[in-house]
Write a structure and sequence with these properties.
Bound molecules: coenzyme A
Pfam families: Acetyltransf_1 (PF00583)
Largest sheet: 12 strands, mixed
CATH topology of the largest domain: Aminopeptidase
Distance between the termini: 35 Å
Structural class: alpha+beta
CATH class of the largest domain: Alpha Beta
Number of domains: 2
Shape: globular
Helix content: 10-25%
InterPro entries: Acyl_CoA_acyltransferase (IPR016181), GNAT_dom (IPR000182), Plant_NAT (IPR052810)
Protein name: N-acetyltransferase domain-containing protein
Number of strands: 14
Order of helices and strands: HEHEEEEHEHEEHHEEEHHEHEE
Strand order of the largest sheet: 1-3-4-5-6-14-7-13-12-10-9-8
Domain N-acetyltransferase: 9-213
GO molecular function: acyltransferase activity, transferring groups other than amino-acyl groups
Length: 389
């Protein structure tokens, strides 16, 4: 089968000069959602590599039919250095993103061939683990990754999606919200989350990226955070009040936009997509009508963390702050975050009727190094990199 497939399908690296048009056509053909009569289209604004370009080591592979050079599949990969939440250990992980095969050519082994090729690339680039995230309901992915490729479940996460529809609730009068400089945010994150699972070694790069809108802390007005206003004081995290919270915001809407369209009811393909559009799409139950036809974007809230007995009201204030901010960002219609299911912060994110959530599963497999240390990962809290979303 594999030898036969080799004669028909070529897997090669995406060529930015030659393949853009073919990729756009392919993506349009694939990017069709599954909900009654509506579909979602992701406008990558002319850059199919926008999700991986921000990683220093990245690749996009495409599958091409040898007989007519038709592009029938694609997958993206990147390599990251991250923490494992185990005594400060850091590892190199290869991430598989955006795998898809055009509906007409599915179930012929092309998806598997793309996965094997990207795995080979990750191993050649020193990855110790390979990781993939997929919706819990995507049984095809589970079959492909777990049963065919020996991935195991690493963690359950939840994606929370809130459409910007109403006025934001006023932040609590007792709470102060302050913007941090990039240096302050780096030092606070490194101090408090630096050893957490999936904390990126290149946090500086994320916070200095142009898609980063900034990082904000909240704390009670009755408390004083000594050193917070002294930009030279690198030791300010150690003087945090007993309750405080932080989040950072990523302007995903500047990298790509989503567009929901009404479809002819008989043309409704069933396709689940491994990317933000697809992840958010099933959540948009209350908002689809408002969002039809016009491209829209979202803000991704990441690094959501905090401590202390008053954490609840501090997280809520930051959430509503981000919500108001989103209302002022052009074309931004939704705020989104992703947290580990057992992250203590999760219960404090405001749960209104318009809030939706979707379960996301992360799978991984070890591809290099001793085989007995899969259990070094503790996943109560983990860092979701905004570049992956
Ligand atoms: C997932 C996807 C890439 C698979 O591509 P594909 O070329 O059809 O997959 P393959 O033919 O290589 O199948 C490999 C294995 O996947 C599983 N699989 C694929 N299609 C399946 C289906 N319709 N039902 C159940 N299992 C399926 C099977 O285990 C299959 O092995 P088998 O044929 O020996 O039983 C394709 O379905 C797709 O593009 N889906 C939409 C996007 C998506 O969900 N991407 C994955 C997100 S992580």
């Amino acid at each position: 089968m594999s030898a036969q497939l080799d004669e028909k399908v070529l897997i090669r690296e995406f060529n930015e000069d030659r393949d853009i048009e073919a990729v756009e056509k392919f993506e349009k053909n694939c990017e069709t959602g599954s909900r009654k009569g509506v579909s979602i289209f992701t406008n990558m604004m002319g850059d199919p590599m926008c999700r991986i370009r921000l990683y220093p080591t990245h690749i996009m592979l495409i599958a091409e039919l040898l007989e007519n050079r038709e592009l029938v599949g694609a997958v993206r990969g990147c390599i990251k250095h991250v923490g494992t939440d185990n005594g400060g250990t850091h590892v190199k992980i290869g991430c598989i993103l955006g795998l898809r095969v055009s509906p007409k050519h599915r179930r012929k082994g092309i998806g598997l061939k793309l996965v094997k090729s990207i795995e080979g690339w990750a191993i050649r680039n020193g990855a110790q683990y390979i990781c993939i995230a997929t919706e819990e309901s995507n049984f095809i992915s589970t079959n492909l990754f777990v049963h065919k490729c020996n991935f195991v479940k690493l963690s359950s996460l939840v994606i929370l999606v809130q459409p910007i529809k109403y006025h934001a609730q006023d932040p609590s009068l007792n709470v102060r919200i302050e913007k941090l400089s990039v240096e302050q945010a780096i030092s606070l994150y490194k101090g408090r989350l630096g050893s957490k699972a999936f904390f990126p070694n290149d946090m500086e790069a994320i916070l200095n990226e142009k898609l980063s809108l900034g990082s904000w802390v909240s704390f009670l007005k009755e408390d004083d955070w000594v050193g917070l206003h002294n930009k030279e004081d690198n030791d300010f995290p150690s003087r945090a009040p007993s309750s405080w919270a932080i989040l950072s915001i990523w302007k995903t809407c500047e990298a790509y936009k989503l567009q929901i369209r009404r479809q002819h009811p008989f043309k409704c393909f069933h396709a689940t997509l491994s990317h933000a559009g697809a992840k958010i799409f099933p959540c948009m139950k209350t908002t689809t009508c408002d969002l039809l036809h016009r491209p829209f974007g979202f803000l991704f809230l990441y690094g959501v963390h905090g401590e202390g007995q008053r954490l609840g009201e501090l997280i809520k204030s930051l959430w509503w702050f981000a919500y108001s901010l989103a209302g002022n960002v052009k074309d931004c219609k939704v705020i989104v975050t992703e947290l580990a299911v057992c992250d203590p912060v999760r219960e404090h994110v405001p749960q209104g009727p318009s809030m939706s959530c979707i379960n996301d599963l992360w799978y991984f497999k070890k591809v290099n190094g001793p085989s007995d240390d899969n259990d070094r990962w503790k996943m109560t809290q983990l860092f979701v990199d905004p570049r992956d979303f």
